[in-house]
């Protein structure tokens, strides 16, 4: 059967080149070959994340590190900032880890605002917060810099940030932001196959993690740091993914980070233009739209046209493209188009042409 190209917001389309890198012959994870591989990647990840901290490689999906961050870094009470399916779930995960947790819930499609976070933190009792930079379910980007600025007012609160669907597509300057944890799964904007997560932690977060008695082993941040200092991981990593990441990072720097960021901005604008051309509005609040995916409003909110999303999906799938039909409670009432990964103006134009053709029958 012919391959259907992925334009869902993760996992995204993986290139032949990346698949080839994944198939590099195996090496041992305690040998010099692996250490050399990790040591080569390390400065690239540090440059990508604008940090002097060591970047860690976790063989897990993003949720492994998201849960791990809660286990390592919540001792009193965590504030879970919630504005969509993934950020809402982090609240449940915190409770499942046995932590005291409080919700800062805003309507789906709205971003998390610094004023609201400030108000909650001012009530006291919190020693950590979780925030999703780019809420993929609603295509909404929260103002990370404004929220991170609160760290100066609340230095004892550990800021844990999920950048799963934005890392590498937009600049996120870890050290400058002053946040404590930044994490991403690599099947989104990095365009690797699922199975590897990347994260960094501040010295304060590592010191705090060292005092957590029940932080477990697999996602023990202290173990990640100790091992990273030796260019190793705590347990056997998915070495194929590390080869693929190395190949991908070379591509990032061959393109140039600024060019990469600009490319995502451009292809995202083209998607928004496509939606507007067909009379659709966007689901996120104006000014907070994601730049790695577009969540198109299809009746979830007043305004704009609506049509049969399942039919649209089928019509574009028949032309070789997979798009997303909306997530969770806004399934069918929105649809999502991803411009993450390797997509260029030329490849996005192929998607718009398929969508245009589909729209003539809707
Ligand atoms: C996809 C996604 C996740 C979950 O990632 P997994 O790799 O499935 O664990 C978490 N947060 C955001 C913002 C996501 O887009």
Describe the structure.
This protein is α/β, with parallel strands linked by helices and 362 residues long. It has two domains: 5-12 and 257-359, Aspartate Aminotransferase, domain 1, CATH 3.90.1150.10; 17-253, Type I PLP-dependent aspartate aminotransferase-like (Major domain) (Aspartate Aminotransferase, domain 2, 3-Layer(aba) Sandwich). 40% of the residues lie in helices and 15% in strands. It is built from 13 helices and 13 strands. The chain has a seven-stranded mixed beta sheet, with helices on both faces. Strands 1-12 form a two-stranded parallel sheet. A hairpin with a 4-residue loop joins strand 6 and strand 7 (140-141). Helix 1 (16-22) runs antiparallel to helix 10 (239-255) and helix 2 packs across helix 10. The model has no long low-confidence stretch (mean pLDDT 98). Bound molecules: pyridoxal-5'-phosphate. Residues 10, 61-63, 86, 132, 134, 136, 162, 164-165, 185, 188 line the site of pyridoxal-5'-phosphate (PLP).
Features:
362 residues, binds pyridoxal-5'-phosphate, alpha/beta, 13 helices, two-stranded parallel sheet, Aspartate Aminotransferase, domain 2
Main sheet: strands, sense, barrel: 7 strands, mixed
Q: Show unreliable segments.
A: none
Q: Could you name the CATH homologous superfamily of the largest domain?
A: Type I PLP-dependent aspartate aminotransferase-like (Major domain)
Bound molecules: pyridoxal-5'-phosphate
